[in-house]
Design brief:
heterodimer, A: about 100 residues, alpha+beta, two-stranded antiparallel ribbon, 4 helices, globular, B: about 425 residues, alpha/beta, 9-stranded mixed sheet, 15 helices, 17 strands
Chain lengths: ~100, ~425
């Protein structure tokens, strides 16, 4: 699935983005690029927040995050993700849930 | 805020609301903290509501709860790529009140439940994330939030903060989740005119249909799909063990797209307008994955405690029951003027053990491992069953005895006689 198609879906969702304060971060981007062979976050994140760049680096944009926790749980070999909930009131706001 | 509360409940999902409601109703001073804009705005479920667990908390919930449809028909589909073989159970006895279960839309249901909590006297604060537990040595004495400008104190803190329970993890009450302990589910809601939903599923009034699905839709991963009828919408979703997603490098979004394109499913969704896409982890590790659920000044309820019966697709009823039992523990101890020590809060565990929550989880404790190690239940068998039906139902001049032999041979070829016997045993072990 191309990320464009996921973006179309996420467009239906309601978010309040905490601009400039992402609630999830990659601890050390070099580990993703140089050590992690599988980079499963780029496939398993249901919102497609993680993209694999041509140079082998993983880029994270949290705006469409569904706050499920998948990326944190699958990164079990390197524990390379800082994962917090957004500040109160921010992030995904499910209309139906 | 210098006020001290009898109890703080973190989270306003089914378990948190059940706990806060029960506590407030008994006259205790309760603070409930929710990180969403309103209760329900962070919560995701299929969603089926089982009446019994809620009835034990709010007996007359049917009077004003936002319920979509009561279920009169359950379909179980075993799918291969082109077909499904399945069973339908429909009964008019399910169409007579009091109804046993309903489809619900969580954002609306949780908001309603929360209103009941507030009417019972609890103080609810939304748009506030609890960042840490406040400790006095090993004892939990309150919470630190990102909003109230500091700390709030209570005699006991109930963690109802969901499957990811960052608080329990930070405090060292439980380890990080493992991919084999959780299923990742993705779902969409599609809106259709009410009369289209009703004619398509052969229902009327508030009656509804659910379809549970296993087979090739999960591409060999351990998991299930579902399609539920709401009043004027359908929810469709699929969930598989996260360890399988990881192993197969499978995109959950693509999995759902392929499922929606299945020739038996697509016509049911035809013309619907997709209005939301959601994802959620479901704690499906079962009995063996349950962490420590109480300690000095704290208890864990709901998904945070991994209380989900994956075999029967039950979670919110276990959540509500655990929330209620935690609250009843607090009420009993408070009445006896006992402190909320680890020793005294063991009463919560005893209550859970005596309830269906732990009894059911214990009964199915082997199931996650058995299905995990035997993917044939999700690939080979659905294919064999569908092929068998196809062989028997195709009229082509071949005599029936020969056809039966073909079917028998196809099973033996794929799994061998010992394999078949072993699988039957494993199936029995999983459900014993």
């Amino acid at each position: 699935m191309s990320n464009a198609k996921i973006e179309e879906k996420l467009f239906q969702n309601r978010y309040r983005v905490d601009a400039g304060r992402p609630h999830i971060g990659i601890k050390n981007a070099d580990i993703c690029a140089d050590e992690c062979r599988t980079q499963q976050c780029t496939v398993c994140c249901p919102a497609g927040c993680y993209t694999l760049e041509g140079n082998g680096r993983v880029v994270l944009i949290t705006d469409g995050c569904l706050e499920c926790g998948t990326c944190r749980v699958i990164c079990e070999d390197y524990r390379n993700i800082n994962w917090e909930y957004p500040r109160g009131g921010y992030g995904i706001l499910f209309k139906f849930g | 805020m210098a006020t001290k509360f009898d109890a703080i409940v973190v989270g306003a999902g089914p378990s948190g609301n059940a706990a806060a409601y029960t506590l407030a109703k008994s006259g205790l001073k309760v603070l409930q903290i929710e990180r969403g804009e309103y209760p329900g705005s962070k919560n995701v479920q299929g969603a089926i509501l089982y009446s019994d667990a809620l009835e034990k908390i709010i007996p007359d919930f049917r009077e004003d709860a936002p319920l979509e449809r009561h279920i009169i028909e359950q379909r179980l589909w075993v799918l291969d790529d082109e077909s499904f073989i399945g069973s339908h159970y429909r009964s008019d006895s399910f169409n007579k009140p009091p109804y046993n279960r309903y489809t619900i839309i969580r954002a609306q249901f949780d908001k309603w439940f929360s209103q009941k909590v507030q009417q019972a006297g609890a103080l609810l604060i939304c748009e506030t994330t609890v960042s840490d537990l406040l400790m006095d040595g090993d004892r939990v004495v309150g919470v630190q939030t990102d909003r109230l400008g500091g700390s709030v104190y209570a005699d006991v803190v109930i963690l109802a903060d969901g499957v990811n329970s960052i608080l329990a993890r930070k405090a060292g009450f439980r380890p990080e989740l493992r991919p084999g302990d959780v299923a990742l589910a993705v779902k969409e809601i599609h809106f259709l005119p009410q009369e289209v939903v009703e004619s398509r599923f052969n229902i009327s009034g508030d009656a509804g249909v659910v379809i549970e699905m296993v087979g090739k839709i999960t591409k060999g991963m351990m998991g299930t799909g579902f399609l539920y009828t709401n009043k004027e919408s359908l929810t469709i979703g699929v969930g598989c063990m996260l360890s399988d997603f990881k192993k197969q490098k499978c995109s959950p979004n693509q999995l759902l797209e392929d499922m929606k394109a299945h020739p038996s499913i697509r016509p049911l969704m035809e013309g619907g307008e997709m209005k939301e896409y959601a994802a959620h982890l479901i704690p499906e590790g079962g009995y063996n994955a349950i962490p420590k659920i109480y300690g000095d000044g704290w208890m864990i309820v709901g998904d945070a405690g991994m209380f989900v019966n994956a075999a029967h697709r039950e979670g919110s009823n276990l959540a509500m029951t655990s929330g209620r039992l935690a609250a009843e523990t607090v009420i009993e101890l408070a009445a006896a003027k006992k402190a909320f020590t680890t020793k005294n809060l063991a009463l919560y565990r005893n209550k859970l053990d005596a309830s269906f929550v732990m009894k059911d989880l214990k009964k199915y404790r082997n199931m996650p491992q058995i299905f995990h190690r035997n993917p044939q239940f999700f690939t080979t068998y659905p294919e064999l069953l569908n092929k068998a039906a196809h062989t028997m139902l195709t009229v082509d001049g071949v005599d029936k005895k020969t056809k039966e032999k073909q079917v028998r041979n196809s099973f033996k070829q794929k799994r061998s006689l010992f394999g078949l016997m072993g699988d039957a045993y494993k199936m029995w072990r999983a459900f014993e």
